[in-house]
Amino acid sequence: MTPDLIYGLCGVAVFGIGLVGALCAQDRLRRVLALKLCSVGAGFLLVVGAWRTPPATPDPVPHALVITGIVVMVSATAVALALIRRLQSLEADDER
Amino acid sequence: MTDPLVIFDVALALAIVALAVAALSVRDLFAMIVLFVVFGLLSALAWVRLSAPDVALAEAAIGAGVTGALLLKTLHHLRYVSGTLGQQAAYGVTPLTPVPIGVTLANAIFCGLITLGLAVAYLGAPAAGPGFDALVAEAMPRSGVDHPVTGVLLNFRAYDTLMEVVVLLAAVVAVWQIERGVSDAPAPVLGEVWQGFARLALPATVVVGTYLLWVGAEAPGGAFQGGAVLAAVGLLLLLTRAYVPQPTHRGIARGAFVLGTGVFALVALLVASGGRVAFEYPLEHAKTLILLIEGMVTISIAVTLAALFHGREPVAQTKGGRDDT
């Protein structure tokens, strides 16, 4: 049982949970959050792939990729949340 | 004998999976966001265990912190618009349509199969294949910095990072367009404890953010982590109303948004004009150029993330009505 095996399976599980949430959840906020869970799961697999048994240092390229992924994900989340806010305001206007 | 760290790893992995399940199944949306933030922080802890402190810092600051703040802001707006702000628990505000149980079941089975396939592929993958470690280690003396991740981000794979800054810029442009004319939910009034906390936390946060940026050259840290911590300063200023965005500040904000991308691209063009490949910095100036880019990118990231939190662009306050510009 090495950390890469434990956290690798953990990452796969988190990705699967996020996928179920993205397809089955009805609330919009929850769907966005489920997609974010998927991205964290994918990040886990990349970080696990970069891991080397200490004292060897890990591979820095996947680390840089995950950092890029985190920043891109926060941008995508912000746009998705702005769309949700807009949609909600429009629906509230329709009801009035 | 079992290594105590293995027990820790298993417990942490189980906690992460359980938090993911809990975040998606809890009914109260506020509890969902809190569980998600805790999930992000524990993931960061797991990444520290996998000797990826840079990624852990980025996830804790951006993935859990800034994303959590964005989600809470949106939840507040949704509750304000739907008129459920006074209720204790924040249940779903999206109108629900009943879905046949068969569809949900088919979706779940489909996701289960994909996850199973991924798990099989992961377990069957060759362990510890050759990575880029050797290439990076060989090129590090020519990068101008001592920390491999910063070297990869700002030198070897600088195109990726440039595009990443462009994505942030595109996001803030899109948000300003989408939010145009949407009425703003009034922010909740903050108590005196909060104001005092902000006064204490602001200077410390500025120091931490700047330190993270500076230390990135030789240790975990860097532009993105520092930028996110500085964005937290912006969030605090916005929440405590110490800074209220004015329409006249739009020009400054736009300048700050493009500053990082502009300087980054300009350095690439200048380097390329000297008969080199773009981002092939001359060694004697490499550290200066990387720090210049990082500093400007940090300012852009901090201002952009704070603007993404604030949502729509600042417009003149008109009394009572909505102001469609």
Automatic annotation (TrEMBL), chain A:
It is found in: Membrane. It comes from the Bacteria. It is a multi-pass membrane protein. Keywords: Membrane, Transmembrane, Transmembrane helix. The keyword Transmembrane applies. Coiled coil: none annotated. The chain crosses the membrane at residues 6-25, 32-51, 63-84. This is Multicomponent Na+:H+ antiporter subunit C. It comes from Roseinatronobacter thiooxidans.
UniProtKB/TrEMBL annotation, chain B:
It is found in: Cell membrane. One of its GO terms (cellular component) is plasma membrane. It comes from the Bacteria. Pfam families: MbhD (PF13244), MnhB (PF04039). InterPro entries: CPA3_antiporter_subunitB (IPR050622), MnhB (IPR007182), MrpA_C/MbhD (IPR025383). It is a multi-pass membrane protein. Residues 197-297 form the Na+/H+ antiporter MnhB subunit-related protein domain. Residues 15-79 form the MrpA C-terminal/MbhD domain. Keywords: Cell membrane, Membrane, Transmembrane, Transmembrane helix. The chain crosses the membrane at residues 6-24, 29-49, 55-72, 105-125, 156-176, 197-217, 223-244, 256-277, 289-309. Belongs to the CPA3 antiporters (TC 2.A.63) subunit B family. This is Putative MnhB-related membrane protein.
